[in-house]
Amino acid sequence: MSKDSGKFRITFADAGKPAFALDQESIFIGRLKSCDIVLEHKSVSRIHAGINFLDSNYFLINLSTTNTISLNGRPLKPQRTDVVADGDIIQIGPFALAASVRSGEIGLQIHSQLSGIPLTTNKLPPVGSVMPHLLSKEYADVLKVFWEKRTREKEDWGTLLRPTQKPQPGKAVINWKPTRDLQKPWRAGLFIWAFLIVGAIGAFAFFRYPQTFASKPLATPHSGNIEGSLIANQGNGNSCTTCHTLNGSLETACIKCHQAEQFHASNVKAHQEAGVTCTVCHAEHQGADFQMRAAAVQTCAQCHNNENLKTYNGKTVRTAHGGSYGYPIENGVWKWKGLYRETAETIPEINGAATNDETEQAFLSRQFHSIHVSRLNVPDGLKGDKYGLVSCSTCHKSFEPVDRETPRQTCAACHVSVLSARENTANCISCHVQHPYSGDRWSGYLRADALTLRREAIGSQIKRLNEK
């Protein structure tokens, strides 16, 4: 419903009373001096009627339960409403209000003792049929809307000897309710002492039995004040309120702390859409020696498992790569889906080598080789080029036909140790990036200028994310 103000223009047939105009949503008509239109007569209730402006129409509301009101000579029952149209005559006691509605403005000319004003006319339709489409269920609560906007004012409203609820309309206020002003109230000191005693017991229990509140201590990275961290802008210092705040979630605290020049707490798109948050993978309160990164790797296998029947965005997950890992080509066809956009943004070599790839297979091949060839230092035990970088012959012993067996054996030479949670153990995060905006990833293998380019790209992307 519209909340625009109506325009009311009030004139009197009696020349001794001046005309006036009101710009508001509704008006009261009655005997009380506080009413917008005051009609002084014993047959008029203190608040007899109201006119409310809703959706470019004016609704007449009967607020009296004892005295009558009529529209065009037809009675309007108590607590009922009807639309006021141009030419309508409203009768309240010995007064007649001639209505004129034009261009969103309503004019009310008030005549006393009904002098010269016909109460019925054959030209006007009966009450309730002026605009029947406006009296549908949508407008059934127009009276409720009217009362929500207005309250009756009393000289000493709200005192202990007065009722605290709105009185019913009518001549007599009969809804008096007993008050508690004569009852002896509870002493404020009792509540203060109770609060102090309970607080003291809670504080003693927290320091005497901390394991009751946290089953195990925080992991070492969170329990100390770490300076110069690559992934956090401040240390936790074993503080509870750093992570557990009253006005934010635990994940919000994680993201706020883990923002550094070379690290942003963004997750990959697939996990964001599935609702995977920080604490799903990185648990806490598991002991000082607990390895949070190792636990995160374990959660990968716990979730991506054929026995996990839960769906994420309508899709199920399964055991990845049949329980193994390796070269993402089967029968000469790339099964790799390519890099996420967030990860590609941190690798300038991909954008610099961009071409008009004719097929999706060509696009995947270009991405895969751009992040490996001439970009990584060759690991021990493998052959590189004259600069000590990974080349085509590092992984392929022949090219006609292309050797696809050797790469399956050489993948593990890089995807262990440096990228793993445990020494010499390949795992999910060795290949699948979870926090793409991390400047430290692959730093042990990237050539010096490639590492510089990547960190510059990550720095610009983090700046862009922080400016959003």
Q: What do you see in this structure?
A:
- With 468 residues, the protein is α+β, with helices and mostly antiparallel strands.
- It is 26% helix and 15% strand.
- It contains 14 helices and 18 strands.
- It has helices at residues 142-149, 188-208, 220-223, 240-243, 250-257, 269-274, 278-281, 292-303, 341-344, 348-352, 360-370, 392-395, 406-414, 448-467, and strands spanning 6-12, 20-24, 26-30, 37-38, 49-54, 57-62, 69-71, 74-75, 81-83, 89-92, 95-102, 105-112, 259-260, 263-264, 311-312, 315-316, 329-330, 333-334.
- The protein has a 7-stranded mixed β-sheet with strand order 2-1-12-11-10-7-8, with no helix packed on it. It has a 5-stranded mixed β-sheet with strand order 4-3-5-6-9, with helices on one face.
- It starts with 5 loop residues before the first strand and ends with a helix.
- The model is unreliable at 119-137, 151-163 and 417-424 (pLDDT under 50).
What is the CA-atom radius of gyration, in angstroms?
A: 39 Å
Structural class: alpha+beta
Taking strands numbered 1, 2, ... along the chain, how are they ordered across the largest sheet? 2-1-12-11-10-7-8
**How would you classify the quaternary structure?**
single chain
